[in-house]
Amino acid sequence: MRRYLIVDDNRDFAENLAEILRDAGHEVALAGDGAEALALARGTRFDAILTDMRMPLMGGAELVHELRRVDPGAPAMVITAYVGDNDLEAARREGLVAVLQKPVNAAYLVELLEVARRDGLAVVVEDDPRLADNLCEALRSRGFAAVTAASVLETERLGPVQPFCALVDLRVPGGPDGAAMQRLAAKYPALPMIVVTAHHDAWPALPHQGFFHKPFDTASLLAAVERLHGARAPSPVPAP
Question: Its domain of life (predicted)?
């Protein structure tokens, strides 16, 4: 049994989804706005949180940001009818398991909720947008969330997240080989890193927990991520 929090001012939608999840044997709490959601999250350890983007008083992006302070290990996903919303980009920088467009396929949504992992946020540093998208999709298929950077400079602009690992291309724009690793090590001390590179003459100067040459076997890389997630220190239970 898992425990979910659904945040939506559309009570009918929230109740319908809650009924589906309860029929599958899970516990579900409902909140009609951000303030109510934060109050619930302060006293309960949720396995996943689903929020609407457009709500009165506090939108989904602000809610996800505040939730990260209350319970940084809780996986979050958003559902929205406004896929081009600027606030949605802000929410992505917080690290999301998924962004779903309304109307949503309920069976797919339930599947995502059931595999979402606590403390499962990874950083992906890759300047090839197609590969970055593929890596993020592969991670999400295993219930992990991801935030991305395409250059050394962008590693400095990552949101206030607490990743459990990073997948880092050894050579990205903005610095010499390994510069992105050095920035991440300074930003997140002791962060485990898995290195990917297309250059056989390159080797990371910093400690790492995996090394993959492109093209690599995605299943093997995901297995390395799984091992790091299993070895992590779990986040504390939210204080009431």
Answer: Bacteria
Average pLDDT, the chain: 89
CATH (one of 3.30.930.10, 3.40.50.2300, 3.40.1360.10, 3.10.290.10) for 3-115: 3.40.50.2300
Three-class SS of residue 195? strand
Six-digit token string for 162: 């607490």
Cα–Cα distance for residue pair 47/118, rounded to 1 Å: 6
Burial of 69 (C-beta count, 10 Å sphere; 0-12/13-18/19+): exposed
Decide if 3-115 and 121-231 have a common fold: yes
pLDDT of residue 87: 60
Q: How far apart are CA 234 and CA 110, in angstroms?
A: 24
Distance CA 72, CA 232 (A): 14
The DSSP symbol for 97 reads S
Distance of CA 141 to the CA centre of its chain: 12
- Of 21, 25, 24, 70, the C-alpha closest to 50 is 21
Q: What pLDDT is recorded for position 61?
A: 82
pTM of structure: 0.86
Residue ranges of domains in the chain: 3-115, 121-231
> Which residues, at least 6 apart from 58, have a Cβ–Cβ distance to it below 8 Å?
33, 34, 35, 66
* C-alpha separations of 66 from 63, 101, 130, 140 in Å: 5, 22, 31, 22
CB of 27 closer than 8 Å to CB of 2: yes
